[in-house]
Amino acid sequence: MEWLTLLIGTVLLRPYVFIFLAIYLFIASRQIGWKRTILWTITAYAVAFTAEFSSIHTGFPFGEYYYIDTTRDRELWIAGVPFMDSLSFSFLTFTGFSCAWQLVAARRAGNGQPDLTVTRTLRRSPAVLFLGATITTLMDLIIDPVALMGDRWFLGQIHGWPHGGQYFGVPLTNFAGWFLVTAVTIGVNQALDKRFAAPGAAARSQRRRIPYMHLGGFLLFVFIVAFNLFMTAWLREWVLFFAGLPLALGFLLISWRILAGRGFLLPHLAGPSVPDIKKLSQEARISEAGQK
Asked: What is d(CA 28, CA 26) in angstroms, rounded to the nearest whole number?
């Protein structure tokens, strides 16, 4: 049961990762349902682990880098890769996907009230895949440079690039790798999404309606980016801080303009209410009776 002890140690050593994970699980379960959320978590971990394992042995896709296993006796490592590192890709990739999904839906909405069937279909679109991978990579422009300074804060020095890099010590190949890994993760889940039938009215009625839940991805974006920018400021790395802050604010400003312009900043709800469902059912029965 050593792995269980190390798993508990991982939670105690990296509580911020599991706080983000818990927020992601709640938001994702409300946006895409629990089955898809579990599949997203598993596939995101599998794709990320494969990419990281490949990179430390071949240099693809993140570039040639290495892990420093100084915490191997305190947290869970799998085949030379920290468990929490690959697990983080689940909420990071979903954040990019969720933001992209709402932005693409807002751009294509004909009015301020997005149709659930349309938005559900759009989440499988190539536009969401490309934009979601771009947003996640933008987040990594802020995350990885401060993670590289882990020996100066509670993350610890767990990885590095032997030849350095062009962007605050991080090579550009790393960001290309993030784009690829995110695109594969989103693409796999888009393919799996097609195999699930849309939830019926009864299932939707059992979900508690929570206002603004469609904006959950942006909330995750703010939490994750704010945490990393705070650590950057705490380390007094002001050049890095003022390189990352405009990226985050610029993305949020553009998103706000797109979403506000289509009414997506209103408290849209995840599904129709019970009265709405009854009304639709009554209308359907009346329509059928008229046809008869």
From this structure: 6
